[in-house]
Amino acid sequence: MAKNSVVKVSAKQGMVSWMETLAEAAKDVLATEVGAGGNYLSIDDGRLKYQGLEFPGNKVDVVVLDAVFANAYYDKPYKPGEPGSPVCYAFAWREDLLVPHEQCAKAQHPQCKGCLKNAYKSAANGKGKACANTRRLLLLTPDMLTNLSEAQPLIFKVSPTNLQSWAGYAQQLAAIFKRPPYGVVTNLAVVPDPSNKYHINFTKLANIDDGAIGSALVALQTQTREAGLLVTPYPDVDETPEPAPVKKTAKKYSK
To answer: Helix H segments across the chain?
Structure first.
């Protein structure tokens, strides 16, 4: 009588197989579950969120694949629950190249430099700028590095009050560590700030020294730029509909 054969799997093989199974299952979830708000990492009331769910500890580890300058001018005050698009906006990888996007509804000036809406004290409160100067970052999570061909980058906006935090971090990486942002793993954390609603901390965690991964990151950055992932135009500004005419009803007279 033949003995039952037993397949021996090493702990390492088992872990690799399990991770591959998890990755495949995750793809099915992404294809099945349609989230709200697109592939954006956002901050809502000081809480770091993705698809409406908060991150534990209000922080996440990422690789910053790319970054663009993004300006946006709204001609109407913000109202909670009423999303709208800016009438003038611009994207560029260099600040001096910022010009109104060809699809914006009402360009305010031929270029952002010199625009009155982009001047200090032009805001309604007389302090900041009427045009919001922000940065859009394209993020990867560290687990995406194992299969960049299947990666789904996240888009994250750095608010005007946190621009110096990002710029200072990027400059530190370049000047001291001789690396671009995609050459390291970064911890992105949102902390309370008494002078503003929140503050974003960027902290270097580890270098990415694998040459194959580095080359793949450079290629992915090129692909996402060609696809315009960080410079997708805003939806068209909806025209305010005319109020519906009030129907006049015939007066009823008592007999």
So the answer is: 11-32, 163-175, 211-227
